[in-house]
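Q&A log
Question type: sequence-to-structure
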Amino acid sequence: MSLTGKISIVTGAAQGIGQTIATTLAQEGADVVVADLNANSCQETVDRIQQLGRKVIAVSVNVGDWDQVKSMVDHVLKEWGRIDILVNNAGITRDGLLMRMKEEDWQAVLQVNVTGTFFCAKAVLPTMSRQRSGRIVNIASIVGAIGNAGQANYAASKAAVIGLTKTIAREYASRNITINAVAPGFIDTSMTQGLSADTKEALLSQIPLKRLGQPSDVADAVSFLCTEKAGYITGHVLHVNGGMHMA
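Response status: OK
Response body:
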């Protein structure tokens, strides 16, 4: 197990891709902080990690609130003494065409997806700097690279996450901290499972591999970037999209 002894925080880990990332890191030997808006919703993830024999803490946190993020990090340091990995996975959507998009929907998406990523990184970087080691992986999206009608706020937020990733990577490379992004394409989750057959067929026609991705495809990419094998990779955006966008 390549992450044995590592302490990791995964935001938005109660379900979906975040849950798979958290359990994959545990499979690789990491102890995991399962962070989500409601800690009670994290029980399934917690159970899976415990079954793998790893230590786990569930934490309620709104990543768009600095005080809550700082409190989470302080709690982890008090319990476990260090933080080796941060995966910024928490994110929301509030879709709508630009002319109909409410200002509050724009602000909400940017606050969680961009400011939340900024807050979490800012909170863990002092500890990682003192350790002279750390891994941060930010979950971006294919739409941050190519755009998507009806998702101006979400696409803008994920493009911002990419820019933020590259900037922090330049700032902290001298401390042996790597910061990368994983940009999923269309993944087989509850959201895509609700698409009509015609919509799904049209979507698949744009993907050279002719299938939707699995949460494990994203989680395996994240896990790799957290290992020593990825020690010379920083400021990179790893696209996991079946060839739909070839950067």
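Response note: The radius of gyration is 17 Å.
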